[in-house]
UniProtKB/TrEMBL annotation:
Keywords: Oxidoreductase, Signal. InterPro entries: Met_Sox_Rdtase_MsrA_dom, Met_Sox_Rdtase_MsrA_sf, MsrA_MetSO_reductase. One of its GO terms (molecular function) is peptide-methionine (S)-S-oxide reductase activity. Belongs to the MsrA Met sulfoxide reductase family. Residues 46-184 form the Peptide methionine sulphoxide reductase MsrA domain. This is Peptide methionine sulfoxide reductase A5. It is an enzyme of class 1 (oxidoreductase). Catalyzes the reduction of methionine sulfoxide (MetSO) to methionine in proteins. Plays a protective role against oxidative stress by restoring activity to proteins that have been inactivated by methionine oxidation. MSRA family specifically reduces the MetSO S-enantiomer. The keyword Oxidoreductase applies. It catalyses: L-methionyl-[protein] + [thioredoxin]-disulfide + H2O = L-methionyl-(S)-S-oxide-[protein] + [thioredoxin]-dithiol; [thioredoxin]-disulfide + L-methionine + H2O = L-methionine (S)-S-oxide + [thioredoxin]-dithiol. Pfam families: PMSR.
Amino acid sequence: MKLTASVLLVTTIISWAASPALSIRIPDRISGNANGVSDQPLRTSVFALGSFWRSEAAFGCLDGVVRTAAGYAGGSRPNPEYRSLGDHAECVQIEYNPKIISFRELLDVFWTSHDSRQVFGQGPDVGNQYRSIIFTNGTEETRLAALSKEREQTRSKTSVVTTQIQQLGEFYLAEPEHQKFELKRNPFLLQLIGNLPEEELEQSTLATKLNGYAAELCPPRMQRQIDAKIDDIIRKGGFVDISVLMSTLPFVILLYDMRLLIENVI
């Protein structure tokens, strides 16, 4: 009887997953990314704009951003750690497709995502590790960064823009507990993507997007679309307690890869 019930459950779930109405496919849940840009040459930019928890989320939802990572840069101490930063700043590293989003557009998000006039910190976070820095790769990025800083200073008539512009040296990846921090604070979203192992989570484009979504930092249109997609899945009965399924049918978790559920949104 238990075997028959299990077979029936698997058949029902597979039929549900194949429903055209839900636009679900079952590819490899680890490889590839939601933007479909894995074959495109990617570029990397690094910015410091306060706490890297929120900084990583601020860039995650942007079209063309493939991956983000929290880390440290701008200082001289080798192998910095969270409790031993030395003169480094908390930073976010962004891998992006330049055919979809440009360095100029990343600069725009940088300026609007923090207060570049604040000295020795950001908001309630006080300290040199929270300073504002644009890290550049080459003379063209340095030129664009300088022009954007001039424009920002023009807008700020009463305060000095404190942002530094530096050539990027070594970027040090932060400890695992600091990666995708906003997403990790949302057990529901983590469960929907299958509670990915840490290494997969850090490399996942989907996790990058949902990290921004969890912090409510996606562009309004995308935030609303993801809200609606998740609500629709739940309303149609598409959400099943994965912890229950895993206890009897571990492989069924593949059907709940969130990348498949919201692939048409992000």
